[in-house]
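User: Let's play a game. I give you a shape written as tokens, and you guess the letters that built it. Ready? Here's round one.
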């Protein structure tokens, strides 16, 4: 079989990263390379032409999913003509929805990857990227009057913790009435005051 062109190699790499970002959010980073490559429609051997190791892929996927959050947040601001409060409210509405709860593969990587990142060794690039991504997401969620700082002050961190905690608990209790109650309670807590 002939060599793959540089353009095709780049497309294959993008396909693996996109597929991994969905599978890691849905199933965790323990997904096997063989299963990942099958889902991407590529051979197992092609993985090692693109990535030095699975850890290197986890690092790249972590950066990719947090870039995705930043793009979504910027697009939300643009949709709401730069009105931060309106963009935050729209994000809260979508985040605490049954649709988001039921679609982990396209859902929030903060919630989906937390346990895998926490269990990984300190000093890993994925852990550093995750921490930076959490701080940036919290800064986006910070009330306009919040003092600038890591995570946009306590308000942004508290909002992010409420969102992520509610999502994780609602997924864990899915199938019981408690699941929707958790989403509704968190939504009310985040939107009543503003």
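Assistant: Ready! My guess for every position:
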């Amino acid at each position: 079989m002939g060599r793959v062109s540089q353009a095709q190699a780049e497309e294959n790499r993008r396909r693996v990263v996109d597929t991994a970002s969905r599978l890691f959010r849905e199933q965790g980073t323990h997904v096997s390379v063989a299963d990942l490559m099958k889902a991407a429609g590529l051979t197992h051997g092609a993985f090692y032409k693109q990535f030095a190791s699975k850890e290197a892929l986890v690092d790249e996927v972590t950066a990719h999913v947090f870039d995705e959050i930043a793009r979504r947040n910027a697009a939300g601001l643009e949709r709401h003509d730069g009105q931060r409060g309106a963009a935050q409210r729209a994000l809260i509405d979508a985040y605490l929805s049954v649709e988001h709860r039921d679609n982990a593969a396209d859902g929030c990587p903060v919630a989906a990857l937390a346990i895998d990142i926490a269990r990984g060794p300190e000093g890993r690039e994925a852990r550093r990227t995750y921490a930076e991504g959490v701080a940036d997401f919290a800064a986006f969620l910070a009330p306009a009057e919040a003092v600038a700082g890591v995570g946009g002050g306590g308000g942004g961190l508290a909002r992010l913790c409420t969102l992520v905690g509610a999502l994780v608990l609602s997924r864990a209790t899915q199938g019981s009435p408690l699941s929707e109650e958790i989403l509704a309670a968190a939504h009310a807590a985040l939107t009543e005051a503003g």
